[in-house]
Amino acid sequence: xxxxxxxxxxxxxxxxxxxxxxxxAGCAHCxxxxxxxRLQKMGQAKYKNGFKVTLHDDVLALPLTWKKPRLIFxxxxxxxxxxxxxxxxxxxxxxxxxxxxxxIFQILTKRSDRMxxxxxxxxxxxxxxxxxxxxxxxxxxxxxxxxxVPAALRYVSAEPMLGPMPDFPLKGIDWIILGGxxxxxxxxxxxxxxxxxxxxxxxxxxxxxxKQWGGTNRQETGCLLDGxxxxxxxxxxNGNGDLLLNL
Length: 247
Prior knowledge:
Radius of gyration: 17 Å
Distance between the termini: 9 Å
CATH topology: TIM Barrel
Strand content: 15-25%
């Protein structure tokens, strides 16, 4: 099994869609929006529309050119299930992910209701992981939507974690990623919230990945929890069910 360090050394982002808009509390200090406007000012052609949803057909085939297996985050600068992304384009993205079966693709959305409603119209290959952001207990409804999706692996990103999550329902969830907010105006995260989630994951044998404490200087705050790194990951399998030991 590759270590977390090896996995991170071979991860990538793929952005066939850029742009989004705010939908919930976790969006208040969106890093992608800040980055998009910065790149627009720098004259980057891909961001000529700033943070308006834009489709990029020219990068659809990019993962097919990456021959070494990677863990690929899909649309770090957008949300695949935004209402302005047509089903036909989403299906094109899934076609590429099916063809590039030596990679693993991570999808993360806050628009879980649209993901669940479109799921029956999409062919879900085994190398695609589906995830939802749950930044506080106010968004537990996204978990029900996630469980309705026929993905090989379902995960939750509790980042930024903005409040306690008592009785977090882990049934049907295969992985938890948790982290504090970082950057300008970062909202604080309390240690007891993190400890509770870690203990809940341990009790239910769910891998727990603690990403960062966050804050205005995330390098300074780091990602140690009680003096330990928690970089647990689910098994990395490609579309053929083979462990990706050569990452």
